[in-house]
Amino acid sequence: MGAAPFLLLLFFLSVATPLSASPGEDLHLLEFKRTLRNSAALDATWVGGGDPCDRKKAWRGVDCSDSGYRNVSAVLLMNLGLSGDVDVTALGKLQSLRILGLENNSFTGTMPEVNRLSYLKSLFLSGNQFSGEIPPDYFGKMGSLKKLHLARNGFSGSIPPSLAQLHNLMELFLQNNEFTGPIPDLEQATLHYVNVSFNNLHGEIPANLARFGASAFQGNPDLCGTVVGKPCQTAAAAAAAAAPGSSGSMTKWVILGVVVGILLVTILFKAKKKDDDFTMLRKENLDEVIQVNVPSTVRRSASSRRGSFSGSRRGNDGGSTSSKRSSQHGRSSNDLVVINEDKGFFGLQDLMKAAAEVLGNGGLGSSYKAVMANGVAVVVKRMRDMNKLNKEAFETEIRKLGKIKHRNILPPLAFHFRKEEKLLVTEYIPRGSLLFLLHGDRGIGHAELNWGTRLKIIKGIGRGMAFLHTEFANYELPHGNLKSSNVLLSHNYDPLLTDYALFALISNTQSVQALFAYKSPEAILYQQLSPKSDVYCLGIVILEIMTGKFPSQYLSNQKGGTDIVQGTKTAIGEGRAAELIDPELSGGATAEAVEQMERMLRIGASCTESEPAKRMEMKEVIRNIEEIKA
Ligand SMILES: *[C@@H]1O[C@H](CO)[C@@H](O)[C@H](O)[C@H]1NC(C)=O
Ligand SMILES: *[C@@H]1O[C@H](CO)[C@@H](O)[C@H](O)[C@H]1NC(C)=O
Ligand SMILES: *[C@@H]1O[C@H](CO)[C@@H](O)[C@H](O)[C@H]1NC(C)=O
Q: What are the entry keywords (predicted)?
């Protein structure tokens, strides 16, 4: 009994070497390597006694987290021709391991017991020769799993129903296996990618998975559902077939090129447990049913270059009458006006085949993603309170926005104007928003957000803002709604600004106040706005990127998140600005790099000065940003 504290002390003395891998992690990794075959590619760096987390001599495929100790958080051994056994027991000793990737190797046999690593967030096993059945309850204890990639293997049997219990699941890659049986009901609102194509599945495609589009289900001849153009013989399908205007069969539709049908998609969103600021923000008001309808008989006229699209929205209690009514609107009121043909022309046919997915509900309205049959994915934004201008003036304004060609600005592609409803269509950008990347899933994506990438993002945002401030120099708010959720990222992390220059269109005071510029101190205190309010918003984004923290300024009640404006001010005042920089950036960086990061932080701080007069002009901010080097 009495010896215990002493032993504990000894233990600490022997292991407490901060900022190195925790004791033994090298040994655990080597133990894991022992049962691999063809692992010569690891020999050079995986050396006993070494530190797998040593930044100067990193172990191949090993990534580490910071937490006083640096612990192994990811093992990513892709494309190495590895085979042999996956020693799950050895991996289980790596307490911080969250990501396991063995994609594109030559592993065989049944699914290893990776489910013993119950805290894994990402499991990438695609492109091997695994086979056999995965037990039905296999995933029951893997509640943290967000990404599961098992594509291009030989898995057979049913898709494990326990996948439905993974409340955080975002990506599910099961394509090109030999799965049989039905697709389980996966109702997670978190899912944003599902692919089960090229298996031997049969039965009905669950309604809430239809949003992933036909290509996610192809190569399964026995699957049925509207999304694959092969209705199942159910009551719902019969009802749809009886709807007015859809008397023609699918074949007729294809042959005549006449659009027949009504339903795009119905999405049920269930409010889920809220566990952090980010999900809180994202899931506000998502508890609703949304239905988007396309009128039943409209012929496409190639010369008119117009398609049709009409949406209607109803609460949980609404019947289908409202949707039928809207589907009978005359053609003129249903026009989808294409104003930018960079992504080609699209119209009713394309949108009809598309399945929609709710992306979020912002202050100005809700957004949906629709993947069209031609593979082009678009975002349809349904805007509230946009009746300040009549149709002509609205069109002129939107066309102005649509004409913009700048590598950091995402222009609208099409719009729809009816008194009750405005829709704005833009290209869908798969990587998603900066908000999502910074705070959504602190997995792989985050590790890629190194200093060079973040600087590139800030510079791109700056260039986009500079352009808007020139183009719309006479506008009170040239952007008006800059925040990380309105910055999308291309595949190579070029930022794209959206939701800009809408201030002039919005009629309702409450909606106008949903613009983030209204969170600037001068707007809150004196209802004053100017292009300097955009400078404030840019400052918030810069601080957010540099600290990696979720700004409390984004939340309506400011409860939660971090007050990065005050935090930065205080830290700079006390001469400890460097401490605020996201440790994933500053850790291991050279003194020069940290100095550049600090300069960027100071730019963000000066943009968020509470008095507009003390803030730099946008041009000057951009000049300062451009001087910073990676
Ligand atoms: C990292 O490893 C140390 C030592 O094993 C442990 O005390 C610490 O909790 C680990 N950190 C995390 C985040 O798991
Ligand atoms: C694995 O191989 C596939 C097909 O060759 C490729 O598309 C994919 O990018 C590879 N994955 C990785 C992580 O390299
Ligand atoms: C699903 O996977 C198949 C096969 O790899 C591919 O052709 C298809 O484009 C994928 N669908 C989606 C939506 O990514």
A: Kinase, Leucine-rich repeat, Membrane, Receptor, Repeat, Signal, Transferase, Transmembrane, Transmembrane helix
